[in-house]
Amino acid sequence: MSRVSVEIENHIAHVTLTRGDKMNALDPKMMQAIVEAGEGLMARDEVRVVLLSGEGKAFCAGLDIMSFGAMAGQDPESFLMPRTYGDANLFQQVAMVWRKLPMPVICALQGVAYGGGFQIALGADVRIAAPGTKLAVMEIKWGIVPDMGGMALLPHLTGSDVIRRLTYSAAPFEAEQALEWGLVTELAEDPVAAALALAEEIAEKSPSAIRAAKELIGFAEAHMGDQDAVLLEESRVQAGLIGKPHQMETIASNLQKRKPNFD
User: Fold this and answer.
1) How far apart are CA 62 and CA 5, in angstroms?
2) Domain encompassing residue 51
3) Which of 7, 120, 138, 139 has the fewest C-beta atoms under 10 angstroms from its C-beta?
4) What pLDDT does residue 91 have?
5) Using CB atoms within 10 A of its CB, is residue 261 exposed (0-12), middle (13-18) or buried (19+)?
């Protein structure tokens, strides 16, 4: 049974979690499928934006605890400590692959995004949630800590006190509160439609500039506090864009009041 679908249309990759009957809960096969979907887009130059969503009534309910019962008798270091995806293990790559992609990722949320599902959403560049969507840093409920990239991603989005409150309590909170805390970008009655509209808007911009912008933002986050390095990187990235074909087409289309053609 397929757990993730990938369809590319008009330069937008629609990545959908397709275990809707289980609220898209994460079992080992689904985690592997999510990573493979993300990794498969790394070199797809024709893809300008990714729209990540979950079918059915929930984005992702987090780990399918029953399916991970087999791990109980294993040495946890054997499957957690090896860095099988660069700086990440499989669990972490399920969320981090979306941040590592060269193109923007927009995540549409509905129903619930708990635990691992919440951390997957954190890996996206933008999160659009339906009103009333419930989110949670759920791991403490099971006697563990967030370990799917959450601790690498959360500090860039909200304050330490908020992270501690959510982690220590494991209490669900709604999208409206998440918006105040900076954990979702905006609310929409139909988050998939809103995400698609934004994806279509981004897909009409210079592909090289959009990818450069994502890389530059990531650099600035990683070098926060090192102003000299960030200013130098701004200049380096800009020098690589000015006068190149995508920039010249952007200028021409603006002056001629037409849609750009980057193909």
Assistant:
1) 18
2) 4-202
3) 7
4) 95
5) exposed
